[in-house]
Amino acid sequence: MTERLTVAIIGAGLMGHGIAWLMAAAGHQVRVHDRSGEALSSLQGRLESIETLFGAGPDVRARVRGTDSMGDAVSDADMVIEAAAENLALKQTIFEDLEALVSQDCILASNTSSIPIRRICERVKKKARVVGTHFWNPPHLVPLVEVIQMAEENLPAVHKMIGVLAQAGRKPVHARKDVPGFIGNRLQHALKREAIAMVANGVCDAETIDDVVKYGFGSRMAVLGPLEQSDLVGLDLTRAIHETVMPDLDCTPAPHPYLLDLCESGKLGMKAGEGFRKWSPEEAENVRASLRNFLAVQAKANR
Ligand SMILES: NC(=O)c1ccc[n+]([C@@H]2O[C@H](COP(=O)([O-])OP(=O)(O)OC[C@H]3O[C@@H](n4cnc5c(N)ncnc54)[C@H](O)[C@@H]3O)[C@@H](O)[C@H]2O)c1
Q1: Is the peptide bond before 138 cis (omega within 30 degrees of 0)?
Q2: pLDDT tier at 2 (50, 70, 90 boundaries)?
């Protein structure tokens, strides 16, 4: 039987409201704290959009309560998931404040995309209670959550978190080392490093990179992971390809100068009308809509 918990979410933004929905849909009582009045006042409306997407009833939303007081949100919480902005100093302060407000056994988790958890909880005294929970955007549609372990003493909290997430219908995985970027973002950004280097070197344009992934190996990746694929074709083939390709791959140990130039010239992507590629508002909306629809179909199929 599912254990009914009280879960507090810090940050009612893009990730926080989706995580709140997931936890409420699993039957837990959810408190959401944000320091922005606008984020809190729009919370129920954004939850209602998820409700409509899933054709759910209002009972899920009714289990979520927003509050402008962190103490009110966390005082009776069994676990807290922090989803505030990606800023180390901010997260360190939130975790220090949290420890003074929560119960002895409360688990503290951060949804950071890439910052090592040990840095975030530097000022927390009882570190055994701290884990990483890296959800993917949008968290109510993408099943993966990386649960990050800092040290041996965190294992009970990691196991507890994995159990709660599995009961909530997620696909939790265990990252046994607290490395920057954890697992998924290291993989994703290793691919981006080579993609950017190829565009910078004139091998192809950005659209071609995206087509090669979407219409090539990306089209099978939802059912065939990269190491499964190596096992499928044989490690001898993987080894032969690595002997030719590995010495030639980019290994710039920092953001590539090509990316830095784009950022410096204000080409920040769809929000600016241009990034690696040019985007009209309609084209940008089409990409967002097809992503939403694709993920919603998959999420409904997996329910
Ligand atoms: N957006 C993504 O694709 C994505 C994916 C995975 C993980 N993450 C991570 O999740 C976290 C949140 O990202 P997001 O995209 O939801 O950001 P967001 O900007 O949409 O939301 C952050 C919210 O935190 C609130 N906040 C900031 N400081 C606060 C404080 N001291 N106390 C309470 N609330 C505070 C803000 O008012 C805002 O509503 C970040 O660490 C981010 O790296 C984001």
Answers
A1: yes
A2: confident
Topology of domain 183-254, CATH: N-(1-d-carboxylethyl)-l-norvaline Dehydrogenase; domain 2 (1.10.1040)
**Closest CA relative to residue 47, chosen from 28, 69, 21, 68:** 21
State which amino acid sits at residue 148.
Answer: I
State residue 1's pLDDT score. 62
User: What are the DSSP calls for 144-188, one per residue?
Assistant: EEEEE--SGGGHHHHHHHHHHHHHTT-EEEEE-S--TTTTHHHHH
pLDDT for res 197: 98
Mean pLDDT of 46-64: 93
Closest by Cα among 161, 188, 199 to 80: 161
Instruction: Name the CATH code of domain 6-175 (choices 3.40.50.720, 3.30.530.20, 3.90.1310.10, 3.10.20.70).
Output: 3.40.50.720
Half-sphere exposure of 240 (CA within 13 A, CB side): 5
Q: What per-residue string of b and e applies to 249-283 under the rule 16 or more CB within 10 Å gives b?
A: eeeeeeebeebeebeeeebeebeeeebbeebeeee
Q: Does any ligand 1 atom lie closer than 6 A to the CB of residue 273?
A: no
Q: How confident is the model at residue 148 (pLDDT cuts 50, 70, 90)?
A: very high
* Residues 260 and 274 sit within 8 Å (Cβ to Cβ): no
Q: How confident is the model at residue 299 (pLDDT cuts 50, 70, 90)?
A: confident
Determine if ligand 1 sits within 6 Å of the CB of residue 101. no
CA 116 remoteness from chain centre: 14
The reply to whether 134 belongs to the active site is yes
Residue 185 confidence (pLDDT) above 70? yes
Cα 202 to middle of ligand 1, angstroms = 36
Tell me whether residue 146 is one of the annotated catalytic residues: yes
Pairing of strands 6-10, 79-82: parallel
